[in-house]
């Protein structure tokens, strides 16, 4: 039984961690009980020295999962935390800008890390030290601020609030999973930039490059009416999805093609494949590496760096994290000449993401991404006879290749739809009836033409501005055609139907 349970050891550990995180979310606050359970399970593992320890590792990771989610669902704040200053009183707060400002509807939102605070109506001018993130909304003319700047604001500090609409978006929960427990609203006159001190390291460089690429896309002249191609291009290349118009987002949802807007395996795979090819060609110029059969292995190892760089450039959403980790694990397995197990690799990616940031489990992007990939892997493994290309003795290799490609494309769309449809019904109350047909047309146009050209433009940007612009213009032109196809399918009356919100039991069924 133990051999069957731990045939793929990462999978039971992953499900144990997920179960612990879920229990910790539903019934938070039992720190001591979870800690005692974890210590008991760890002791049982050491006593048995790994022999016969069947359920102890499962109990241990359930306890670890429970404890890992507590800082977000049942935090224990210090006496100096910003939440201690909630109320109607106004304060002067000095803090450091943590995020890139986001401008929407004549408002600018930014995350501040509070440093010190003092009441406006107090007798003393002395500041008290504090800490904690504040989601700050600024009305009026936006200030020119960047991550790392020190600013002063005059405002009240309040807890995040929901609109309390049944089934509505839980804004408070969303902010808590980002580690934000306070909000502030003020006019631009009440913010003063005290010091310019840009953050050091690779992230500010990545942020600057993202802004430059965004500006370059905004300056594109598509020579026709606005189709939303620029906003879609930003989503595909650098992960800026918030700018996509709502009507265009709805069209992608109705046609079941919204998954292509998320930077995931397709994008990261293109980067990895292109980098591996280039590095293999470069390393093959060195005789020493050829003699020791290190050309491919060295290329696999070096390819991890541009893959990680692109993941950071794309914003590292859960789907991007999953793809980056899976590709990195695959390349490392190739480097160490280990046998590949794609399900274990998927489980490793999920485990790493949840260890780094446990609230990712409740992210829609995380759930859709892993559900789709799992069903594709499992489904294709059970339907090999429909798509696997066997040696063709008749010599019709091209016909066999086309048939295999078409069968694989259809099955991938079918299994991805099956895997994600319960979640889409649960979160969006939508069932697409044209998803299979739309995906078969849209994926080749956008995924195999527009995206590769756009990614080539991104990597050419530091090298040649002219070549980067040419690739970007071709990518945008192709993307316009892809959007036309999406709009064509979405206008059909039977393209999608509204559904009820299924229960968890119905989703499992």
Question: How are the secondary structure elements laid out?
Answer:
Blueprint: H1 2-5, H2 10-26, H3 31-48, H4 56-73, E1 90-97, E2 102-104, E3 107-119, E4 128-129, E5 133-139, E6 150-156, H5 171-177, E7 180-187, E8 191-195, H6 202-218, H7 229-238, H8 246-254, H9 265-283, H10 287-291, H11 295-313, H12 318-335, H13 342-356, H14 364-382, H15 384-387, H16 397-428, E9 430-432, H17 435-460, H18 465-490, E10 496-498, H19 504-508
Parallel strand pairs: 5-7
Antiparallel strand pairs: 1-3, 1-6, 2-3, 3-4, 3-5, 6-8, 9-10
What does this structure look like?
With 509 residues, this protein is an alpha+beta fold. A hairpin with a 2-residue loop joins strand 2 and strand 3 (107-119). The two termini are 27 Å apart. The relative contact order is 0.08. The protein has helices spanning 2-5, 10-26, 31-48, 56-73, 171-177, 202-218, 229-238, 246-254, 265-283, 287-291, 295-313, 318-335, 342-356, 364-382, 384-387, 397-428, 435-460, 465-490, 504-508; strands at residues 90-97, 102-104, 107-119, 128-129, 133-139, 150-156, 180-187, 191-195, 430-432, 496-498. The chain has 19 helices and ten strands. Helix content is 57%, strand content 12%. The strands form two sheets. Strands 1, 2, 3, 4, 5, 6, 7 and 8 form an eight-stranded mixed sheet that branches. The protein has a two-stranded antiparallel sheet with strand order 9-10.
């Amino acid at each position: 039984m133990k051999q069957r349970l731990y045939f793929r050891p990462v999978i039971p550990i992953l499900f144990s961690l997920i179960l612990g995180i879920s229990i910790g979310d539903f019934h938070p606050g039992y720190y001591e009980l979870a800690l005692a359970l974890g210590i008991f399970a760890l002791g049982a593992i050491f006593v048995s020295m790994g022999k016969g320890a069947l359920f102890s590792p499962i109990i241990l990771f359930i306890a670890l999962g429970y404890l890992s989610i507590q800082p977000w669902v049942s935090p224990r704040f210090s006496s100096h935390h910003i939440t201690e200053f909630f109320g109607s009183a106004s304060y002067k707060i000095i803090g450091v800008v943590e995020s890139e400002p986001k401008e929407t509807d004549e408002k600018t939102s930014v995350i501040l890390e509070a440093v010190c605070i003092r009441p406006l109506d107090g007798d003393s001018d002395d500041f008290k030290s504090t800490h904690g993130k504040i989601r700050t909304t600024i009305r009026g003319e936006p200030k020119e601020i960047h991550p790392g700047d020190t600013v002063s604001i005059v405002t009240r500090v309040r807890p995040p609030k929901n609109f309390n609409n049944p089934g509505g978006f839980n804004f408070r929960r969303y902010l808590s999973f980002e580690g934000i427990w306070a909000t502030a609203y003020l006019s631009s006159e009440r913010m003063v930039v005290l010091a310019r001190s840009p953050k050091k390291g690779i992230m500010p460089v990545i942020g600057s490059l993202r802004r430059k690429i965004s500006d370059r896309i905004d300056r594109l002249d598509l020579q026709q009416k606005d189709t939303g191609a620029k906003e879609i291009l930003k989503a595909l290349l650098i992960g800026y999805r918030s700018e996509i118009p709502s009507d265009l987002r709805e069209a992608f949802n109705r046609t079941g093609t919204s998954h292509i807007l998320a930077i995931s395996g397709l994008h990261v795979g293109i980067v990895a494949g292109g980098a591996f090819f280039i590095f293999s060609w470069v390393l093959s110029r060195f005789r020493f590496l050829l003699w020791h059969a290190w050309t491919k292995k060295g290329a696999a190892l070096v390819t991890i760096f541009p893959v990680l760089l692109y993941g950071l450039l794309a914003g590292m959403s859960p789907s991007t994290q999953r793809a980056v980790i899976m590709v990195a694990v695959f390349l490392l397995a190739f480097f160490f000449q280990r046998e590949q197990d794609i399900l274990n690799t998927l489980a490793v990616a999920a485990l790493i993401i949840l260890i780094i940031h446990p609230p990712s489990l409740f992210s829609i992007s995380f759930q859709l991404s892993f559900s789709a990939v799992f069903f594709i892997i499992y489904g294709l493994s059970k339907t090999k006879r429909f798509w696997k290309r066997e040696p063709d003795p008749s010599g019709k290799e091209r016909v066999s290749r086309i048939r295999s490609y078409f069968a694989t494309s259809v099955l991938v769309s079918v299994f991805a739809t099956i895997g994600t449809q319960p979640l889409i019904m649960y979160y969006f109350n939508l069932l697409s009836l044209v998803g299979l047909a739309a995906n078969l047309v849209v994926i080749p146009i956008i995924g195999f033409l527009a995206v590769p050209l756009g990614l080539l433009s991104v990597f050419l940007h530091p090298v040649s501005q002219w070549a980067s612009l040419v690739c970007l213009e071709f990518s945008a032109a192709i993307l316009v055609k892809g959007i036309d196809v999406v709009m064509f399918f979405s206008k059909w009356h039977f393209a999608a139907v509204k559904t009820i919100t299924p229960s968890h039991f119905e989703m499992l069924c």
